[in-house]
Every structure is written in C-alpha cells, then in structure tokens.
Predict the structure.
Amino acid sequence: MANPESGNQTVVTEFILLGFGNLPELRFFLFLLFLFIYVVTVAGNLLIIALVVVDRHLHTPMYFFLGNLSCLEICYSSTILPRLLAGLLTRDRTISIPGCLTQYYFFGFLAAAECYLLAAMSYDRYLAICKPLRYATLMNGRSCLQLSVATWLSSSLAIDITIFLMQRLDFCGPNEIDHFFCDFLPIIKLTCDDTRMMELVTTALAAVCTLPPFLITLATYVCIITTILRIPSTTGKRKAFSTCSSHLIVVSVFYGAIMIVYLLPKTDTLRDLNKVFSIFYTVLTPLVNPLVYSLRNREVKAAWGKVAPKFSVVKRIQTFLW
C-alpha cells in the first residue's frame, strides 16, 4: 500500500513479493511441491534430532553438530517456505515492511550460522581423520559446546548491524520485490535514499561472516583429501572418505548455490535463474541434509533400524528406502 505524500513521491508501507507470479498456471503445482518439500524437510530433520538425542551411540561430536545443523535447517525452511506457501495458496503476495525486514533478519542470521556450523563440522572431520590420536582430547564435550555457542552468537553480528541500517531507510515506491523472499539487494532497490555507503558496509560485514568459515572449510578438506590419498589400502581410503562424504555434499550444494546467486553478474538473463539457484540454498539444502546423512551414514541407519521396527509405518518407509 502506498499513501500520497508531498510532491510526486509516495510512502510505501508494504511490499509485494512477486515470487513465481509470472507462472500462474503452475501455482497449484508449486504449492504442492513446496508443501511436500517443507513437510519432508521438517520431518526428516526432526527425526535426525530425535535419533541423536535417543541413541547413545550417536553421542559424539560429529552427531552433536549434525543435531545443531538439523535444528538450523528446520528454522531456515520455516523462515522462507510458510510465507511462500501462503502466497501461492491465497494469491496474497503482500508483506509489511517490518515483516519483510524480520524475514530477512532470520534468513541472514541462519545463513551465517550455517556457514560457521559447516566450518565447525569440517574442523571436526579434519581432527578425526588428520589428528586421530588427539581427536578425543581436542574435540571434547566442552570444545563442542564452545564451538556451538560461538557459531550461534557470532552469526548475529553482521545481520544486527545491517538491519539497524535498513530500518533507517525510506521507501517511496515502487514496492515490488522480484523474489520469493526478502533479500538484501531486492529490498534496497526500492529505497529512495542513497545506499552506497550501506552497501559497502554490508558487503564488508558479509565478507567477514562468510569468507573465514568458507576458507576454514576449504582448507580442512584440502588437508582431509591429502591425508586420505596417503592411506595405502583402498579399504582404508573408502572408510575415511565415507566419514566426511555426506558433509562434503551438503557443503558443495550450499556454497555452490550461494556463489552462483551472489557472485555472478546481475544480468536480465540471470535474474530469473537466480530465483532457481536461490531455491537450492534456501529450500533444497535443508531437504538434502536429512536425506544425505540418513541414506549415506551407517550409524544413523543403524539407529534408525532400532527405532523403525517399533512403528509399522516407519518400517514400511525403511523397507522402501533401503
């Protein structure tokens, strides 16, 4: 909604998320698709959290961080998908400015937290494979808790400052965001203020929050792969790689999609493709997490096997999957 003001400017009080509005014939199909993804994502990640808590064999640093990741993925999906589903179902794509900034706050906070958490998980795998004799000493319960707390607290630094700056912006039209959720660049395109300094500050903050964990993740996997290649036996190589392959898949999907969306030039051709690639790190990554870690991990499958026989429906799902 826009109210007339002095001159030819208008004050914007709400935005319109265009999303996939250019595909009205696919609206019902997209609703069912995203609803299915959301339900599977939440159920799958809740199952992993439950298994990590219940099964004492999963009370290790690796699964402690996996439980944190599953909790994060549930929050991540719940930040984006419910609003998208409501828009597809009701065709009401409006969102208030405070609501939009709130969605962006949680999106930015959880995205940064995922970067740090993936780095912590990479470091855990590095110690397990490259420093096996010191692993139990270095990655004890206290270290895991400290890394987890640091991950969640440090993730709020950049987004707190960014939201503080964005709350001071004036929006005077147009009010259409060409995206399916509230992201930084689509929002600031709608302001009538000079945002060059804010963009510079936000870019620097984003680099501080994402570049170090990315470099840590990259460096640890270089060391891990180098160590695995030095193992003489094929069986030993396969066993060592199996402990980190699931995490490597999640890292590749997450960072690959982010690089495509935020680093490629913003041309007209790529603008629509950016929506597709945005789905990878906002929608599909939370879905991939439980599937990859459950289907490719023997410990999780073993824990699942202990629980599944108690529930006939779960047993049928287990038989279907495995």
User: Anything to note?
Assistant: The first strand starts at residue 2 and ends at 4. The CA atoms of residues 125 and 244 lie 6 Å apart. Residues 196-230 form the longest helix (35 residues). The beta strands are 2-4, 10-12, 14-17, 94-96, 176-177.
